[in-house]
Design goal:
25 helices, elongated, disordered C terminus
Length: 542
């Protein structure tokens, strides 16, 4: 007689996964609980808990956690990691107060588990895991329990396998950034500054840990989150972020010694955080300086260096150029054009789709041209964006422009923002031939259809409508309109009036409101930082 084959835990796990994939979660749980104990182990229970968490059955997963202990299966580090990582996916914590209590209980249980392992299995490195603590810190940050984060940190060993690592500190910096975002939404400036000061304190704590643990190393993700956490703080905190940028990324301010090569910690994340810091402080010259520093050092023969700069960095650089114009800086529009041409050229040569300028990139370049009243450069930017040979304009405007054939996705469509910027630039230049040129392009782009598109931001439709009315008025005063032009543009004016009426009171996009703070404000900020640094230096010597 053939001996009956016993069910093994591995086979049971496969059965449970199959039932769950079929949507029969309750059937899988019943199957688990009804099988002989010999077919079960901790890994099987971990599998079932993971399946529950994957479908957001958080309380059911916790009930299984309790049940497995009741049945004599001791949770391991994977169990706690699975539970806390799954619960950390919750974002709307006010609706899940029960799960927050469960997370606290899991944390306390894990601390007891670690103590047991250190006493009974000191060499079992697999069980001495920090991943459950990383997930718990994320939960506390998302739930807004910031003081508890530091309780968790100071309860950790400061040396050995359970000392804080880069993942712990990254989670702490992310939690601080989340606190700052909430304070910005709520308008709590003091809370935002306190959070940034927390970030500075965490960095200094991390440096102490690094001194005690030679195996600890910084990675770009950690550095980027730290810079972002410091960005919204006081000027003193932001100045500390620049120290990190210099020491860890190898980027130098004007006048500082420039390293021969880029730091291995400098990548797309850390550069993006750096440029965001500069623009947030309204130090747009530094944005330009740092970006150019990286662009000049890229060795295109090294594949990894081709991905240091992408469209996000280019947007921040273009935003800086737009801001600099507010100070009366010259040639920023030609610089913006040069950046777009640099991006397109290297995209073509090295096939870097992430470097391809986006519509927002072009809009920022148009904004720079508009503030500079630089019509010729605006026309060139328009040609790069759309492939339309915009410079083919002839007085009278009877002939339509031709369109270059380029690879798919390279010719972007003309939108309301684009035509609005073109008309505003032509009017700012105060040259009637430029206004005629802009109206020719607007007519070719079917400006009437663009004005009628209610899916477009009301601000830009309103801006286009008022600008269109001003342009046609200027052309009428100058004379020389054909009967057909007068008829067409009269219909545009009528439509523009309707749009102005329907969009009255529309909010202004933040990018349009951005200005580079006046020089006095920036000088005062630098003086404040210098005073704070000097005060701290004096206190440390007394």
């Amino acid at each position: 007689m053939q001996k009956k084959r016993l069910l093994k835990p591995y086979d049971l796990s496969i059965q449970l996964k199959r039932l769950c994939s079929e949507g029969n979660l309750d059937g899988a749980i019943e199957r688990l609980k009804s099988t002989p104990r010999d077919a079960q182990n901790v890994a099987v229970w971990n599998t079932m808990i993971s399946e529950c968490l994957s479908v957001e059955r958080y309380q059911l997963s916790y009930d299984l956690f309790v049940d497995m202990k009741r049945r004599g299966f001791s949770p391991n580090s994977i169990t706690f990691s699975t539970m806390l990582s799954g619960i950390s996916l919750i974002k709307d914590w006010p609706k899940y107060s029960k799960q927050l209590q469960n997370a606290h209980s899991l944390y306390e249980s894990y601390l007891k588990h670690l103590e047991s392992v250190k006493f009974h299995e000191a060499d079992n490195s697999k069980e001495l895991s920090l991943q459950p603590l990383v997930a718990y810190i994320q939960i506390l940050g998302d739930a807004g329990d910031y003081h508890k984060i530091f309780d968790v940190y100071f309860a950790m060993d400061q040396e050995g396998p359970l000392a804080p690592d880069r993942f712990i500190f990254t989670a702490m910096f992310k939690a601080i950034s989340a606190r700052q975002k909430r304070s910005v939404t709520d308008g709590e400036t003091s809370t935002r500054n306190d959070a940034a000061s927390d970030a500075k304190h965490v960095w200094m704590q991390m440096e102490k840990v690094m001194q005690r643990n030679p195996d600890f190393f910084l990675d770009p993700g950690l550095i980027a989150t730290a810079i972002r956490a410091l960005t919204r703080g006081s000027p003193n905190d932001q100045s500390f972020a620049f120290t990190i940028i210099h020491d860890q990324l190898g980027l130098s301010k004007p006048g500082e010694d420039m390293p021969k090569r880029l730091s291995s910690n400098l990548n797309a994340w850390t550069l993006d955080a750096t440029l965001q810091l500069c623009n947030s402080m309204q130090k747009h010259r530094l944005t330009v300086h740092f970006t150019r520093q990286v662009m000049d050092k890229i060795n295109w023969d090294k594949v990894w260096m081709r991905y240091l700069i992408d469209a996000n960095h280019i947007q921040k650089l273009l935003r800086a150029y737009a801001g600099l114009v507010a100070l009366g800086s010259l040639n920023e529009s030609s610089e913006a054009l040069g950046v777009l041409e640099w991006s397109i050229q290297n995209d073509v040569i090295y096939n870097l789709p992430k470097l391809t300028p986006t519509a927002q990139s072009y809009h920022l370049a148009f904004m720079t041209c508009c503030r500079s009243a630089d019509w010729p450069t605006a026309v060139r930017v328009y040609e790069l964006m759309t492939g339309i040979e915009a410079s083919q304009f002839e007085s009278g405007g009877s002939r339509s422009p031709t369109v270059k054939e380029r690879s798919r996705g390279k010719n972007l469509p003309t939108d309301v923002e684009t035509i609005s910027f073109l008309l505003r630039t032509a009017l700012a230049a105060n040259n009637i031939s430029y206004v005629q040129h802009a109206m020719w392009l607007a007519d070719f782009a079917c400006v009437g259809t663009l004005l009628s598109d209610e899916h477009t931001a009301a601000f830009y439709r309103s801006k286009l409508a008022s600008t269109l009315m001003e342009a046609t008025k200027r052309l009428q005063e100058a004379g020389g309109l054909t009967q057909e032009q007068e008829k067409t543009w009269s219909s545009y004016r009528s439509l523009a009036r309707q749009v102005l009426k329907s969009t009255r009171g529309s909010p202004t996009p933040g990018v349009e409101e951005e200005r580079l703070g006046n020089i006095r404000t920036l000088v005062d900020m630098d003086n404040y930082v210098a005073f704070e640094m000097a005060s701290r230096s004096t206190k440390s010597r007394t």
